[in-house]
Design goal:
The protein has about 375 residues and is mainly α. The chain has one domain. Helix content is about 70%, strand content about 5%. The chain contains 15 helices and three strands. Strands 1-2-3 form a three-stranded antiparallel beta sheet, with helices on one face. α3 runs parallel beside α15. It is globular. It is found in: Membrane.
């Protein structure tokens, strides 16, 4: 008992910004991902009408790093109170985007704010991690379950945009954090049962035609070549062209011919894989894996349960993004418009990824204890 009290006091007096080797490694890996993203984006948009996106992405990467370091050095007490305010703001913006949002490819996901487009669902993704962490760390069992359902309910607004990928992401994060909580396991089984029962109903009566086509095309892509699977088939051709070691930077035949639509966003992995091959792709996956497990390795050793839930939430977001994006580029998962963190072109998404990494590192910093360097 005395040892526990001493350990608790030690944590309370611990400085918030004492970096370890692994913290520096996480920051370095994020910067490396940003550089990889810029190099790949440059190869995709050069000599095209989209070349301006390269300069824009540099700006957003700088902003993302700034936000990341702001969160790292912000006071812990303030960060814990941000969730409810950001959540309220994001829900308001989700309503506004349905009313006044800019329509792109039949979807209202962005609000035009002069020099840039704001994507409210990205802010909602960030705020839900903070809010659910507060709920699961303060409430128990029935209350935690009910409050968490209320928290993720605005995901329905995201679905109406429509944005199936982001909707599934929010539900995935909620479910993973629910599994990690002390909520009665009966609720978990209930959620799974409801999900299984609603899946076929949603497929036939809720999803739009193009969404169903993307799912069906997984099983027979050639039959849906012109409608649901063109991007995926071209992506697979380009990736296969890279082989084991890649064609070399700037020498990707498929990338240079621009045969993959939206290659600077959803399908940028195909450009990277063609130029750097399977070896380069495995290195990229290893970088993501290090970041994801960087938070999970400390489970049980965080300062409090709030930061444990934050770590689980952030890790689940990156896991979903990486698996879904690479999966849809390889044609083994449906196309959902989920970007590859720090690699795909994007403003709001890049900044939010920076903010999430800031949370992950902050969780580690406030929980320093005299243990091994990881």
């Amino acid at each position: 008992m005395k040892a526990k009290k001493k350990h608790k006091v030690g944590l309370e007096n611990m400085k918030e910004n004492e970096f370890s080797f692994f913290d520096y490694l996480l920051i370095s890996l994020v910067i490396l991902l940003i550089l990889i993203g810029l190099v790949t984006l440059k190869s995709v948009v050069r000599d095209t009408s989209q070349s301006y996106r390269f300069q824009r992405q540099i700006f957003w990467d700088i902003v993302a790093l700034g936000v990341m370091f702001y969160i790292i050095f912000e006071k812990e007490s303030r960060l814990k109170t941000y969730g409810k305010y950001l959540y309220a703001l994001s829900v308001l913006l989700l309503i506004l985007v349905l009313l006044i949002g800019k329509t792109v490819y039949g979807a209202k996901r962005w609000i035009d704010i002069g020099p840039f487009d704001l994507q409210p669902s990205e802010l909602f993704k960030f705020s839900i991690v903070l809010l659910l962490s507060n709920i699961f760390s303060k409430q128990k069992n029935n209350k935690a379950f009910l409050y968490s359902i209320f928290a993720v309910f605005p995901a329905f607004l995201v679905f109406l945009e429509p944005d199936l990928g982001m909707t599934l992401l929010v539900l995935f994060v909620w479910f993973v954090m629910l599994l990690a909580s002390d909520v009665d396991r009966r609720y978990i089984f209930l959620i799974l049962l409801i999900g299984i029962l609603l899946a076929p109903i949603s497929f036939f009566f809720v999803l739009k035609d193009y969404q169903r086509a993307r799912i069906i095309s997984l099983f027979n892509p050639e039959e849906h070549f012109q409608y649901g699977a063109y991007n995926v088939i071209m992506s697979k051709v380009v990736i296969a062209n890279g082989g084991l070691f890649g064609t070399g930077y700037g020498l990707g035949t498929g990338t240079n011919m621009h045969i993959v639509p939206m290659q600077y966003t959803d399908f940028i992995f195909s450009a990277y894989a063609e130029q750097f091959g399977m070896i380069g792709s495995l290195v990229l996956i290893l970088i993501y894996g290090t970041i994801i497990f960087g938070g999970l390795l400390r489970i049980g050793r965080y300062k409090d349960s709030f930061w444990e839930y934050v770590s689980i939430g952030v890790s689940s977001i990156f896991t979903f993004h990486v698996i879904e994006n690479i999966g849809m580029n390889l044609g083994i998962l449906p196309v959902t418009g989920i970007p590859l963190p720090f690699i795909s072109y994007g403003g709001t998404s890049t900044v939010i990824f920076g903010a999430l990494i800031g949370l992950l590192i902050k969780a580690r910093l406030v929980s320093k204890i005299p243990r091994p360097i990881y």
